[in-house]
Amino acid sequence: MGDQTLIAAFLGLIEGLTEFIPVSSTGHLLLVGHFLGFRSSGNTFEVVIQLGAVLAILTVYAARLWQVFSTAHSDPSSRRLIMAVLLGFAPAVVIGVLAHDFIKTVLFESPDLIAVMLILGGIVLLFVDRMAPAPRYVDATDIPLRKALAIGVIQCLAMVPGVSRSGATIVGALMLGVGKRAAAEFSFFLSMPTMAGAFAYDLYQSRDSLDFSALSDIAVGFAMAFVTAVLVVRWVLSYVSRKGYALFGWWRIIVGSVALTALWAGF
Known about the structure:
Elements: H1 3-18, H2 25-36, H3 44-60, H4 62-70, H5 76-105, H6 111-131, H7 145-155, H8 165-175, H9 180-205, H10 215-243, H11 246-264
Helix pairs in contact: 1-2, 1-3, 1-10, 2-6, 3-9, 3-10, 5-7, 5-9, 6-8, 6-11, 7-8, 8-9, 9-10
């Protein structure tokens, strides 16, 4: 196994481990890619391994999704969840399309910004984990539509790499009175259209520069991201129900601080 394949496997592992916890998978991937000197032509690798995480969440929630959609005609809670996810997804569509080029060409090329946002996001997560109001909604299907829209607006902050999509949605949900487990689960549901839409749009925007010459490395990264993400999604709901989000806040602060120190040292 060559060095590039090992790096691809490592990056796939990072994508799977971090996509569905509030630590910023994009921030981790960009920082690791920067320090390892890894760049794929047309960002093909980064685009495709994200699909592995998308398929992982769809696999884990396949039965739940079938239950929701098959009962939507008769169950008000199923209809409300579908509408809540669609409303939460809508702001990301608008902002993502309008700001896509700026995000990809400016923000994604700023490792110092990513490290700082990891640290700031960690501090916010620690504060909210302790100071969030008492939960009024303990199930993802209970979240009112107006609050789902507000969570979707907050999710747009994650277009700045290092913020974290799941981190933004979870913090927003907690501050709006959603319980810790329900916040994570709603973040999972919201990730499905958001990540699928981002993947499709990135693929379309990069269609002329995609390079699949290193197909074996891409396949390794994809498989690693898929398997790892499946395991993480199954674990995280149980963990946050018992322990909350402090672990992820401290992780962000440590990773961001180490990265910022290394960048200032000229690495």
